[in-house]
Specification:
It is built from 9 helices and 9 strands. By secondary structure, the chain is α/β, with parallel strands linked by helices. The strands form 2 sheets. Strands 4-1-2-5-3-8-9 form a 7-stranded mixed sheet. The protein has a two-stranded antiparallel ribbon with strand order 6-7. About 0% of the residues have low confidence.
């Protein structure tokens, strides 16, 4: 694990330098989760992920990224979200370049660690950082909303492992994501590691969320924006939260939506990437 983290540190430090003109990003193919009936977006369309195969020394290595895009903490907001690409797959392209960030780059110069790895980009369409677990649809203004984020994650894990993608024989895996996707990386970090090591016991797994460390911090009006947002979200989505956190916190279990609590109970190595002046966090505490 030391070598994986050492190289990850070097890669992240290098990201402070602008990418060179040689940096390119893979064209990724949509994999619809049609074989998994519960892997649904809010509007009941089929969830999915984008995949670009690795090559050479990266053939058995994976960078798995959770798409970000905020949350919907009320029925009305989830209804609105269900008409967008963050709540429906109906307008997702069959292929696309996704996040143009360092770990997706195919340039060995810019990205010495993961340039040749398999790349996975999980599209976000449940509105709760892939934690929602409502067994029955929620009817809002005559529309049925499906809150099945945890089923999406389970389906992606199974699909990457059971076909020709090769996660079942992975040697190195980094779990990431940005913003709400960064929070998803934290929330599902141990779940991913348990799944991967259950099939490939010697695999090295690390979680590296970007801009996903949202804090429970009261602003100048003595109100915690993130606390309130997560509180309403938990009541609506009935989330599945990290097992080790749930088993070790006292009081309200929705504390396990907060990174400062989640990270105390993670068993998987963690490398947090967070701006000191994160734009959303600054706005949330009204600085």
């Amino acid at each position: 694990m030391r070598s994986l983290f050492s190289t990850l540190f070097i890669a992240v430090v290098a990201s402070a330098v602008p990418l060179t003109g040689a940096s390119t990003f893979p064209m990724m193919q949509l994999n619809s989760l049609t074989a998994y009936p519960n892997a649904k977006c809010l509007d009941n369309s089929t969830a999915g992920y984008y995949f670009a195969p690795g090559y050479g020394g990266g053939s058995n290595k994976f960078y798995i990224d959770h798409q970000g895009g905020g949350w919907c903490e009320t029925e009305a907001k989830c209804l609105e979200r269900s008409t967008t690409t963050h709540g429906s797959s109906l307008d997702w392209p069959e292929e696309a370049e996704w996040r143009k960030s360092l770990l997706f780059s195919t340039s060995a110069e810019d990205n010495p660690l993961t340039h040749s790895w398999n790349k996975v980009y999980i599209r976000y369409c449940d509105g709760s950082s892939f934690t929602s677990n409502r067994q029955d649809p929620v009817e809002v203004d005559g529309v049925l909303l499906h809150m099945r984020g945890i089923d999406i994650i389970d389906a992606v894990m199974e699909d990457l492992s059971s076909g020709d993608k090769g996660l079942d024989t992975a040697t190195d895996v980094i779990i990431g994501g940005c913003s709400a996707g960064g929070l998803a990386a934290l929330l599902h970090c141990d779940q991913w590691a348990g799944h991967i090591k259950g099939q490939s016991p010697d695999a090295k797994v690390a979680c590296a969320p970007e801009s996903g460390f949202f804090v429970d911090y009261s602003n100048m009006t003595e109100k915690s924006t993130f606390y309130d947002l997560m509180g309403y979200s938990v009541m609506l989505h009935n989330p599945v939260l990290p097992t080790n956190c749930v088993n070790n916190v006292d009081g309200n279990l929705f504390q396990c939506m907060f990174p400062e609590v989640i990270t105390q109970h993670l068993e998987t190595p963690l490398f947090v990437m967070q701006s000191k002046y994160d734009d959303w966090a600054r706005g949330a505490i009204e600085l």
